[in-house]
Write a structure and sequence with these properties.
Length: 89
């Protein structure tokens, strides 16, 4: 989909995109520049793996909780780890 950028550098996100990401009103979005493209995604303020909002460590642009970091640290070669939901922690 092609959109025009206005004189202030703004674009309008199509309603179907906003609905798909459950973006309503003023919501933070995460912008990432890679080579010749810009990626826009709904900002996540929690562990990238389980969604927890506490005990977070930021690695680059992503947040991970200490519990998930511990699970990764204890993982052995060949282990398959699945994200835990906050309810299962």
């Amino acid at each position: 989909m092609i959109r025009k950028v206005d004189e202030l550098g703004r674009i309008v996100l199509p309603i179907e995109y906003r609905e798909a990401l459950k973006i309503k009103g003023k919501v933070d979005v995460d912008l990432k520049l890679e080579d010749d493209k810009i990626t826009i995604r709904k900002a996540v303020f929690g562990c990238h793996l389980c969604g927890a909002a506490t005990n977070l460590v930021r690695i680059g642009n992503e947040c991970f909780c200490k519990s998930c970091i511990q699970r990764l640290h204890e993982a052995k070669d060949g282990d398959i780890l699945y994200p835990l939901s906050i309810e299962h922690r």
